Amino acid sequence: MDTKQDSNPACPVPLSAYEQILMAHGGGGTLMHRLLEQVFYPAFGNPILDQQGDGAILAPAGGRLAFTTDSYVVHPLFFPGGDIGTLAVNGTVNDLAMCGARPLYLSAGFIIEEGLPVATLKRVAASMAQCAAAARVHIVTGDTKVVEKGKGDGLFINTSGIGIIEHELVIQPRSLRAGDVIVLSGDIGRHGLTIMAQREGLTFESAIESDCAPLVDPVLAMIKAGIDIHCLRDLTRGGLASGMVEIATTAGRQINLEERAIPVREDVRGACEIMGFDPLYIANEGCFAAFLPERDAALALEILKAHNCNEAACIGTVTAGDAGLVTMTTSIGSRRIVAMLSGEQLPRIC
Amino acid sequence: MRYIDEYRDAHLVRGIAGRLAALVTRPWTLMEVCGGQTHAIVKFGLDELLPGGIRFIHGPGCPVCVTPLELIDKANLIAARPEVIFCSFGDMLRVPGTAGDLLTLKAQGGDVRMVYSPLDALKIAHDNPKREVVFFAVGFETTAPANAMTVYQAHRQGVRNFSLLVAQVLVPPALAMLLASPERRFQGLLAAGHVCTVMGYREYEPLAERYGVPMVVTGFEPADIMQGVYLAVKQLEEGRAEVENQYKRSVHRDGNLTAQRLMQDVFTVTTRQWRGIGKIPDSGLKLREPYLAYDAELRFGVSEHRVAESTDCRSGLVMQGAIQPAECPAFGRLCTPDQPLGAPMVSSEGACAAYYRYRPKKL
Asked: Which of A275, A330, A336 sits opposite B359 (nearest CB)?
C-alpha cells in the first residue's frame, strides 16, 4: 500500500476544476483570486496591473488627458467580426481617439452571470488582450462581480479609458465652422445588422460581419499630418444620422449630407431593403466622421485610405443655416430632413 | 442594386416629372392608398417634384394605424397573462392602447416577443408546449396569406397551444367607402402594389367604372410613384376611368391564386372597425369555422371588450385624406413618436410618422 497517497488530507474536490462561474467566484475569496489568476492576469498582464493594488498608479507625461467610460451588454456575446471583448476594448479606445487622444490605459469591470462557462470568459479575455495589444493600451485595473443566474444575460463589461492629448487642437462640436466638410472613414450599417441577424436567426446570402475595429491610427495620422480637425465622432448607437443630429445641435450649425456619397455595401443595402431599415440609423463599431476645413479634405482622404479605410469619402458640409438641422440630398436629387429616431428601428410589416 | 437603383435614377424620375408637367392642364388630386407609398413620397420629396396643381392626399393603407383601439387593448389583456407568449410584428409593440402599449407591458414582465414572420410564432409554440403562444395578425391582404399558412400548418401539425388575434383588413371596401363619400377630395387613385401582388386588381375594375375614378396599381420606388401619377393624370386629362397596372414586375390582373385559395380556406370576410374611421361592412377577415380553435379572442374570452377613442387624435381625418398630418393641432406638440396619441405617429407606414421623420418642417 502506498501510504503517502492514502494519508494525503487535501480535499478531493479541486478548486480550479469548476467549468462554470459560481456565485463564489465573486465573493472576494480564494475562488475569486483563482479566477483572476487563471483568466484575467494571464490575458492582461502588465507591470501596473501586476502590482495588484486597489487602483492603478499612473504617471502620464504632461498635457491634457481624455477620460471616457462605456458599458457593453451585447447579445449574443460572440458574432461574426467580433465579440463583447473586442467591443469593450475598441469601443472605449475609439472614444478616446475621437477626443484626439492617444489611448494609454483601460479599466475593465465584469459583471458575470452565475453559470457562464469559464471557457467563455477566457475567450473574451483573450479577445480583449488581443485588441489591447493592437491598440497599444494596457488594461491596468479591473473588477469582477457575479450575479445570480437569470439576472445577468451572461456577461456585462464596463471599460473606462484614459488617453493623452499630444497636440493643441480643440476637437469638439463647438469647433465646427461653416464651410467645414464631413469625411466618413468607411461604409456604414454592418455592425448593427450583424447583431440583429445573429439575434433573430436571420441568414442572408452573403455573410455580413461587424466592422468592429480600432480607429486610433488613422486619427493620430491625420493629426500628425497637420490636418485642422474640428470634430470627430464614432457612429455607434443610432448610426450616422443620430451622430450628425447630435453634433449639429451641440454646435448650433446646420449639416447637409449627400446620400449618393455615403458608402453602403451592396449586401448591407440588400438586407436593409428587405427588412425596411435605413442604414443611416444602424450602429457601427469601426467607422467615424471627421469635420475639417475643405482645404484639408483631400489629404485626409489620402491618409485614411493609407490606413485601411478604403471606402473613406466626403459626405457633406457644415453651413451656417438652422442650428441643429440636418438635411440630405437624396439619390433622386430632392432634399429631406434627417431627424433623430424616437427608439429603435423596427422591421417592416408589408 | 437590381430593382432598386434603376427606379431611383434621378434622371428618370425628373424625366417623368417633366412629361407630367407637359401633360397637365388643370389641378388634380390623387390619393395614394398604401402607407409605404406615403413614406416613399415624403422621404424622396416626390410631392415637391409634381407640377403645380397636382397634389397627393394620403389614404388609410397603414394596417397598424387602422387596427381598432379595442384590439390593441385585447392584445394587452392577453399578453399580460402569465401563461402567454405574445408575438407581434415590431410596429404593433409601440401603438398606444387605453392603458399603455405592448413594449411597456414587456418592461413590466410580460412575455412579448417581436417576430419577423407568423411562422416564427408557430415555432415558438412548438418549442414551448406548456405556454400559450398568440400571434397578432395585423395587415391588409399582403400579410393574410402568411397568416393563413401559419394557421393551416398549426392545424395540420396538431399544435394546440397556438392562436391568432386577428386584425386583418381588406382594401377594396375601404376604397368603396372613400369613393362613395360626398366629401371625396380626390379624382384619381394609386392602388397599393403589394396588396395587388396577392389579390390582383380585378376587384378594382367595377369601382373605377362605378365612380369614374382612374386607378393605377403602383409600386414603391420614386420612379414607380411618378409613373403611377403620370398614368393617372393622363387618364384624367383624357376623361378615362380605368384600372391600369404600373407595377407589372410584381402584379398580374389575377394576382397570386395559390395565396388567395389559402386565404379562402382559412379566413372568411367579416365586418371590421377601422380605427379613426368607423365600421366598414365586409372589410376584414376572420377565421373560418374549421379553424375557430385558433382564434385568440375566443380562446381567452376577450370578445366583449369595448373602449372609447381619444378625442385629441385626428388620425381618422388624416387617413381619409381630409387633413394633412401637419394640419392636426396635436402634430409635433402633444403628439410625437415618443408620446403618440394614435397609431399613425408610431407606425412605419403611418402618414404622421412620415411627415414627422422626413419633413418636420418646411425646407
From this structure: A336
Tell me how close the Cα of A297 comes to any Cα of chain B, in angstroms: 27
Using a CB–CB cut-off of 8 Å, the residues of B that contact A are 1, 4, 8-10, 13-14, 36, 42-46, 48-49, 63-64, 89-91, 93-94, 114, 116, 138-140, 142-143, 194, 222, 336-338, 346, 348-349, 356-361, 363
Q: What is the pLDDT of residues B70-126, one digit of tens each?
A: 899 999 999 999 999 999 998 889 888 888 899 999 999 999 999 989 999 999 999
Question: Domain of B41?
Answer: 5-64+171-245
Q: What is the pLDDT of residues A205-263, one digit of tens each?
A: 778 999 999 999 999 999 999 999 999 999 999 999 999 999 999 999 999 999 999 99
How far, in Å, are A35, A88, A147, A258 from residue A32 at the CA level?
Answer: 5, 22, 13, 53
- pLDDT per residue as tens digits for the range B309-351: 667 788 888 888 888 898 898 888 888 888 888 888 878 788 8
Chain B contacts of A202, Cβ < 8 Å? 116
Q: What is the CATH number of the domain that holds B24?
A: 3.40.50.11750
CB contact (8 A) between residue B337 and residue A342: yes
pLDDT band at A11; cut points 50, 70, 90: low
Instruction: Please state, in angstroms and rounded to a whole number, the distance separating the CA atoms of residues A34 and A46.
Output: 18
ipTM: 0.86
Interchain contact A269–B (C-beta under 8 A) = yes
Last residue of a domain, one of A142, A165, A188: A165
Q: How many CB atoms are closer than 10 A to CB A337? A: 19
Q: Is residue B305 domain-resident?
A: no
Out of A136, A165, A194, a domain closes at A165
Number of domains in chain B: 2
pLDDT tens per residue, range A301-316: 999 999 999 999 999 9
Q: Is A8 at the interface with chain B, CB within 8 A?
A: no
Determine which of B39, B89, B124 to mutate to test the interface with A (most A C-beta atoms within 10 Å): B89
Does residue A3 sit at the B interface (CB-CB below 8 Å)?
A: no
| A248 vs A231: CA distance, rounded Å | 11
Give residues with Cβ within 8 angstroms of A198, minimum separation 6: A76, A79, A80
CB atoms within 10 A of CB A57: 9
